[in-house]
Amino acid sequence: MKNASNKLITVYSSANLYELEIIKGKLESEGIQSFIADQNMYTIGFTQEYRLQIRSFDALKAKVILNKIKK
């Protein structure tokens, strides 16, 4: 059985890839590994937004960081 804490969750989405790259860099500088999903799907027109995903066990820490960024 797969460990639930390794599940990927979406913490941010945007149509602007550069915006996700900035947030991804901030999360990674805080020790949170992140992934940009849907890059290929966006290119071929199957989605309107990219999704920034992290492992579920980093969700609380990421939420604090994202709240600081939004201020």
Element pattern in H and E = EHEHEH
Percent helix range: 40-55%
Distance between the ends: 39 Å
Looking at how many chains there are and whether they match, the oligomeric state comes to single chain
Number of helices: 3
The overall average pLDDT, rounded, is 85
Computed Rg:
12 Å
Low-confidence stretches: none
Q: Strand fraction band?
A: 15-25%
Categorize the overall geometry: globular
Across the major sheet, the strand order is 1-3-2
Q: What structural category do the secondary elements indicate?
A: alpha+beta
**What can be said about the biggest beta sheet?**
3 strands, antiparallel
Beta-strand segment tally? 3
What does this entry look like structurally?
By secondary structure, this protein is α+β, with helices and mostly antiparallel strands. It is 42% helix and 24% strand. The chain contains 3 helices and 3 strands; from the N terminus they run βαβαβα. The protein has a 3-stranded antiparallel β-sheet. The N and C termini lie far apart (39 Å). The mean pLDDT is 85.
